[in-house]
């Protein structure tokens, strides 16, 4: 939740600055917001939320997985906001709708694939 909050509120602030103050098209303002938000989110997720040992994974393994899953999320996020914008709903509200979806999406991907812990990276056997 902390990483998501950092991503959301830093991105929301950058978006508001670009979109409402500098009158940048919502898509470009959102891209700028995401670049900053993703960077801060990665740092929080990697070094706080999912800190610890990650057996057999180098830092670049985490980075590659993070970029891959966020690239998919990027497309979904923009489709959500663009779709809502197309029917007359402000991108500001679209941020909240998208964030609700990505709270669950991101947590699951980060926990089990991007930053897997020792117990998450191998199957367990019960006797």
What does this structure look like?
With 127 residues, the chain is mainly alpha-helical. The C terminus is likely disordered. The chain has one domain.
Characteristic key phrases:
disordered C terminus; 4 helices; single chain; 76% helix; mainly alpha; elongated; 127 residues
List the helices and strands and how they pair.
Blueprint lengths: L1 H20 L4 H24 L9 H28 L4 H24 L13
Helix pairs in contact: 1-2, 1-4, 2-3, 3-4
Quick structural summary:
The protein has four helices and no strands. The chain is mainly α.
Question: What fraction, in percent, of the residue positions are helical?
Answer: over 70%
Basic shape? elongated
Total number of beta strands: 0
What portion of residues belong to β-strands? under 5%
Tally of individual domains: 1
Oligomer: single chain
Number of DSSP helical runs: 4
Q: How many angstroms separate the termini? A: 35 Å
Residue-averaged pLDDT: 87
Derived structural class: mainly alpha
Largest sheet at a glance?
A: none
Sketch the topology as an H/E string, one letter per element. HHHH
> What radius of gyration results from the CA coordinates?
16 Å
Q: In terms of per-residue confidence, which ranges show pLDDT below 50 for 5 or more consecutive residues?
A: 118-127
């Amino acid at each position: 939740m902390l990483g998501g909050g950092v991503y959301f509120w830093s991105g929301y602030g950058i978006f508001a600055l670009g979109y409402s103050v500098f009158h940048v098209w919502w898509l470009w303002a959102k891209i700028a917001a995401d670049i900053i938000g993703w960077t801060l989110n990665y740092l929080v997720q990697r070094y706080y939320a999912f800190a610890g040992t990650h057996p057999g994974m180098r830092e670049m393994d985490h980075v590659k997985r993070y970029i891959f899953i966020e690239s998919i999320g990027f497309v979904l996020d923009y489709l959500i906001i663009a779709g809502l914008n197309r029917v007359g709903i402000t991108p500001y509200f679209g941020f909240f709708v998208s964030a609700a979806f990505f709270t669950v999406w991101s947590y699951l991907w980060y926990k089990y694939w991007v930053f897997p812990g020792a117990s998450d990276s191998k199957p367990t056997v019960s006797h």
